[in-house]
Design a protein that fits this description.
Strand content: 25-35%
Order of helices and strands: HHEEEHEEHEEEEEHEEEEEHHH
Number of strands: 15
Number of helices: 8
Structural class: alpha+beta
CATH architecture of the largest domain: Beta Barrel
Number of domains: 3
Length: about 300
């Protein structure tokens, strides 16, 4: 049994030292798909470029993988003898040649950059390419993105958006599934939020009346004037006091951009309980002066 084990071990040793070494010579295992490598272009062809990446055989960049943008002269994006970064998109073939891409490396960098921009809550400029029932497709740094209809400011005339540049925020940046979803409404809201602050007097239009309060549009931001914040006196029916489309002034008493929430108050503008019910036009007319008074004397 020992002699058989020795023979077996000898056979393995013989294979490892000889055949396996030859196999390793034929295939360079240091180059794998998805890996980023450095190399120098040493030859340009109509179909692509040959690159020295330090392997046993040269690597090749197909012409359509040379750049994300359209190219007429290959030497503009792949200059000879310049040290460049490449992404391996296909491992060695029978001849040991690796296939490289600059285009897919650029795309990878763009996804990483957009992910960082999403984390920082940055807005971007996108160009509308096409429209469909669900929304619009847009172009952003060479990538295709999508803005759902519900996240557009103007949802009624999508055709008019073709070719336009829009400011948008990120909803989803998913490189693995090639999903880039954006929102124009969030970007607009974010820009508007930056102009708001606690204690500020704002003017907006009533967009809805509910039993619990009145919704007010502040340049694209939906704010709420709660029934308890309308007056220091009890109110039975808000519909008798307000109407949709009406312009009102109020003080911001709560601001939460993360939740997209703005709370308003007109009761703090009253000189006496129930003034909003008895003489709202007077409260609105002198709202600026009343707001100055409120700044130095916040509501208890």
């Amino acid at each position: 049994m020992n002699s058989e084990a020795k023979l077996s071990q000898k056979a393995i040793s013989s294979f490892t030292m000889d055949d396996f070494a030859k196999a390793l010579e034929k295939h360079d295992y240091q180059f794998q798909k998805g890996q980023v490598v450095h190399g120098k272009v040493f030859q340009l062809d109509p179909d692509g470029a040959y690159v020295d990446i330090g392997g046993k055989a040269s690597a090749f960049v197909p012409r359509d993988e040379a750049s994300l943008r359209a190219i007429t002269d290959l030497s503009e994006v792949l200059p000879l003898n310049e040290n460049l970064e490449f992404l391996i998109i296909r491992e060695q073939d029978a001849e040991g040649q690796v296939t490289l891409s600059r285009r897919q490396l650029e795309i990878r960098h763009i996804w990483e950059r957009l992910g960082q921009m999403q984390e920082n809550a940055q807005t971007v400029q996108v160009r509308v390419l096409n429209v469909n029932k669900g929304g619009v497709t847009v172009e952003l740094q060479g990538l295709r993105g999508f803005i759902p209809r519900s996240h557009l400011v103007d949802r009624n005339n999508l055709e008019a958006l073709k070719g336009q540049n829009l400011t948008a925020s990120f909803l989803e940046v998913d490189r693995n599934n090639n999903k880039l979803i954006l929102s124009q409404r969030l970007a607009t809201r974010s820009a508007s939020f930056s102009t708001l602050e606690l204690g500020q007097l704002v003017e907006g239009q009533v967009t809805g009346i509910k039993p619990f309060g009145v919704f007010v549009d502040l340049d694209g931001i939906n704010a709420l004037l709660h029934i308890k914040q309308v007056s220091q006196k009890f109110i039975e029916n808000l519909e008798k006091l307000f109407q949709v489309g009406q312009s009102i002034k109020a003080i911001i008493i709560d601001l939460d951009e993360g939740k997209g929430r703005v709370a308003l108050s007109t009761r703090v503008l009253e000189n006496f309980p129930g003034e909003m019910l008895e003489n709202m036009p007077e409260v609105m007319a002198s709202a600026e002066a009343r707001a100055e008074r409120v700044k130095n004397k916040p509501e208890e």
